[in-house]
Amino acid sequence: xxxxxxxxxxxxxxxxxxxxxxxxxxxxxxxxxxxxxxxxxxxxxxxxxxxxxxxxxxxxxxxxxxxxxxxxxxxxxxxxxxxxxxxxxxxxxxxxxxxxxxxxxxxxxxxxxx
Amino acid sequence: xxxxxxxxxxxxxxxxxxxxxxxxxxxxxxxxxxxxxxxxxxxxxxxxxxxxxxxxxxxxxxxxxxxxxxxxxxxxxxxxxxxxxxxxxxxxxxxxxxxxxxxxxxxxxxxx
Lengths: 114, 112
Prior knowledge:
The complex is a heterodimer of chains A (114) and B (112).
Chain A: E1 3-7, E2 10-14, E3 19-26, E4 32-38, E5 44-50, E6 56-58, E7 64-68, E8 73-78, E9 87-94, E10 103-104, E11 108-113
Parallel strand pairs in A: 2-11
Antiparallel strand pairs in A: 1-3, 3-8, 4-5, 4-9, 6-7, 7-8, 9-10, 9-11
Chain B: E1 5-7, E2 10-13, E3 19-24, E4 31-37, E5 44-50, E6 53-57, E7 65-68, E8 75-79, E9 88-95, E10 102-103, E11 107-111
Parallel strand pairs in B: 2-11
Antiparallel strand pairs in B: 1-3, 3-8, 4-5, 4-9, 5-6, 7-8, 9-10, 9-11
């Protein structure tokens, strides 16, 4: 069975500091992995996705993630945090390309300190 | 195109009442998904449609829940005899085949 674990329900960083949000997955077959961002009372916006092409995936707003099969990880990073990055971030997995029947992690709330 | 539209945005209902939510997908998107998100959790898959056909339902979708997409365009999600545990954000997403899925802003249900 598939699952996604996000370590750290809350992460605080200073403005300009590195953002690192952790995601580990469990899957018996090669997964398709996604990161979404959710602002308060809003839907989910896709940041980036891994679909078995390049292991380093670049997304919107300066975010990127690296798929590491050996570590079963797909951590999200951004070199320099901006106040507007404060939001909740969700890692998700699906087994089938093009079917958005996701299994989401529990989310990480990012706080950016001035 | 205004994106995926969900109505109402907020709904407060008394326990035991029936509620219905509507999702209007992006025009010409043939796939439509429903998710439920409770406080402090990630969204959980409920069901999905390809055109008017409901292809999959989660075991989370109890007998009190029913979803329809009668003409392959908008979809409705009905909850009968609501319970306090049904309080959640209900999210809808749509995609055209395997292209990117877009989420609506959700309907927040509060059962009192």
